[in-house]
């Protein structure tokens, strides 16, 4: 894969910004649409407008949604599994994939580890391509004070993203790259678990909305003591997974001589989560690299207001395979 500063193979992948009034026209012709239900306007309104033969809601227990509050449109799949791999595999056992299906996944309401495992599974079974969308909010309800997660239950690798580490955690040569978001509890948890690691922070800039960069920096500043050794701060657009993947590639390549174990933690926007996954699938399988995550027992099911625009990303696994260096 070419990694010079002017050109990147990651930029071969397609993305598109869609205005709310164009959702029905631009996001149509799918066989299956998968979304994770929460109460946000940007989740529910998009679900109503995407045109697909089968529309599926995943109802995650972490959102604590009562049966009386379940959506009355679309097919609901109640997730009972605790771990992300079991949750996704249980859904796919209930609704098996059919060869040739055109699939669209709305990442907006997905819990991050579940979204990551779903993409990892599709990559593993050599699924050709999926569209993944993300709906930008107008703002978060309480700005930088918005509460996203509940109690942190554990910090561990996301299933399917466990690296082949040969040295113990917090040995010399450990690097932790964190996509910094709003949730201070998650950032504290991951930093405390990897206390001795050299940290690299990735900030979503340009942000989804202009005011969000300042809010993001305010929240991260509250955690700087926990982060410890921060070697570098870098930036990738909050709305672009492919530039995020390129940024990770560039940073890791620049420090390759000193990295023994690499840990990646995407805590910022869902498009940046996609970027961390895309970089891992391109460069990190069967290497001492893991995506680690601080798991929470509960998440706030309505954190934002409004819908500003929808991004569509073509996650083309065939193209990824063609440009990936073994």
List keywords for this structure.
single chain; six-stranded mixed sheet; Rossmann fold; 2 domains; 326 residues; alpha/beta; 29% helix; 15 strands
Please provide a written account of the structure.
- With 326 residues, the protein is an alpha/beta fold.
- It folds into two domains: 9-141 and 303-323, Rossmann fold (3-Layer(aba) Sandwich); 150-296, Rossmann fold (3-Layer(aba) Sandwich), CATH 3.40.50.
- It is built from ten helices and 15 strands.
- The protein has helices at residues 23-26, 41-49, 84-94, 112-124, 184-193, 212-221, 224-227, 241-254, 270-283, 317-323, and strands at residues 15-18, 30-36, 52-59, 75-78, 103-106, 129-136, 139-140, 152-157, 174-179, 198-204, 230-236, 261-266, 289-296, 304-305, 309-316.
- Strand 2, helix 2 (41-49) and strand 3 (52-59) form a beta-alpha-beta unit.
- The model has no long low-confidence stretch (mean pLDDT 89).
């Amino acid at each position: 894969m070419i990694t010079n500063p002017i050109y990147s193979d990651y930029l071969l992948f397609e993305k598109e910004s869609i205005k709310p009034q164009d959702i029905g026209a631009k996001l149509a012709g799918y066989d299956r649409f998968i979304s994770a239900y929460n109460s946000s306007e940007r989740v529910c309104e998009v679900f109503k407008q995407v045109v697909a033969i089968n529309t599926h809601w995943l109802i995650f227990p972490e959102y604590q949604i009562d049966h009386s509050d379940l959506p009355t449109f679309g097919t609901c799949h109640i997730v009972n599994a605790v771990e992300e791999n079991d949750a996704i595999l249980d859904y796919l056992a209930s609704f098996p994939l059919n060869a040739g299906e055109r699939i669209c996944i709305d990442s907006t309401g997905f819990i991050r580890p579940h979204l990551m495992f779903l993409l990892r599974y599709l990559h593993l079974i050599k699924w050709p391509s999926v569209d993944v969308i993300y709906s930008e909010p107008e703002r978060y309800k309480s700005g930088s004070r918005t509460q996203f997660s509940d109690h942190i239950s554990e910090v561990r690798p996301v299933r399917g993203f466990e690296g082949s580490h040969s040295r113990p955690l917090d040995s010399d040569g450990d690097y932790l790259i964190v996509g910094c978001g709003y949730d201070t509890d998650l950032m504290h948890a991951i930093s405390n678990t990897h206390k001795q690691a050299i940290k690299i922070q990735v900030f979503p800039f340009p942000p989804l909305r202009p005011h969000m960069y300042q809010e993001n920096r305010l929240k991260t500043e509250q955690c700087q003591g926990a982060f410890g050794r921060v070697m570098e701060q870098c930036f990738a657009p909050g709305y672009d997974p492919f530039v995020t993947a390129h940024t990770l590639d560039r940073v890791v390549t620049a420090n390759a001589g000193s990295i023994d174990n690499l840990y990646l933690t995407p805590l910022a926007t869902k498009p940046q989560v996609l970027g961390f996954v895309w970089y891992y699938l391109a460069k990190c399988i069967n290497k001492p690299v893991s995506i680690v995550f601080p798991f929470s027992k509960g998440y706030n099911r309505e954190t934002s207001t409004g819908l500003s625009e929808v991004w569509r990303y073509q996650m083309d696994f065939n193209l990824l395979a063609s440009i990936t260096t073994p």
